[in-house]
Amino acid sequence: MPTLISPFHLDERLAALPVSGRRLDVDVAGGAMPGRLVGLYRGVASAVADAVTDGPLVVVSGDCNTSLGTLAGLQRAGVDPAIVWFDGHGDFHTAATTTSGYLGGLALALLVGDDDLGLAAGVGLTPIAEERVVLVDARDLDPAERVRLDASAVRRLAVDELVEATLPPGPIYLHLDVDVVDAAACPGLRFPAADGPSPDAVVAAVERVLGSGRVVAVGLACTWGPDHLDRPETVDLVQRLRLDRD
Fold it and tell me: What domains can be seen in the chain, in order of their start residue?
């Protein structure tokens, strides 16, 4: 799979990510957040639009919000994907519900149009309908986030429940935040989530999605802390997920 690397966690430039590929060294503009991210994700969108081929494209970064640029780029190339989103968290907060203020907790909500910050609109993303989204194994949910998900049309499945029949129709953007893996098997995460699936269970589920033949892009969010990104166990997990291949 051709691989693009956006070496950032939000606007923090990362020295290393545990994959090889084409590194997108986009300059981050000055000013306030989240405006600094708009230019970064526009750069990702342009690179994705230019790199779309008949096979899946992999976009690697240090967070989940890079998916805004990936999906905007797919749309710019004429692809209208549904979303299969692996994550230990819901990423379904808005600016009004988040208690931490962490923008990474808004990623999936931004993709479906809950964009009170204007971030997705600034990147040029057309919202994805909630009924075209499958959220896999989100187990660490804040109360307000759980209420929002329960009221949404987003489908929620466990890793083992994800099979061909449960996938959304049409082309698929497959998003994989490594913190979907149980925290005990994935040390060094920024936001570890306990009581999750094993790496083998996640690998098997990812392979089932890829086996559909409908995946147009994979987003790999390497949400380890910066001091853990180049450690052998980190590289090993990415290799087990089989998303470092050309």
Answer: 3-241 (3.40.800.10)
Q: How far apart, in whole angstroms, are the C-alpha atoms of residue 66 and residue 28?
A: 13
DSSP E strand stretches across the chain: 3-6, 8-9, 12-13, 22-23, 57-61, 82-86, 133-136, 155-157, 172-177, 215-221
CA distance 129 to 113: 8
Taken in order 147, 98, 205, 209, is the CA torsion positive or negative? positive
pLDDT digit string, tens, across residues 87-121: 999 999 999 999 899 999 999 999 999 999 999 99
pLDDT at 29: 78
How far CA 203 is from CA of 29, 38, 87, 241, in Å, comes to 37, 32, 13, 5
**Which residue bears the tokens 């890079």?**
66
Q: Rounded to whole angstroms, how far apart are CA atoms 169 and 132?
A: 8
The per-residue pLDDT for 60 is 95
The end-to-end CA distance of the chain, in Å, is 4
Q: Within 10 A of 33 (CB to CB), how many other CB atoms are there? A: 13
124-178 pLDDT, tens per residue?
999 999 999 999 999 999 999 999 999 999 999 999 999 999 999 999 999 999 9
DSSP string for residues in 164-196: GGGSPSSSEEEEEEGGGS-GGGSTTBSS--SS-
The Cα diameter of the chain in Å comes to 46
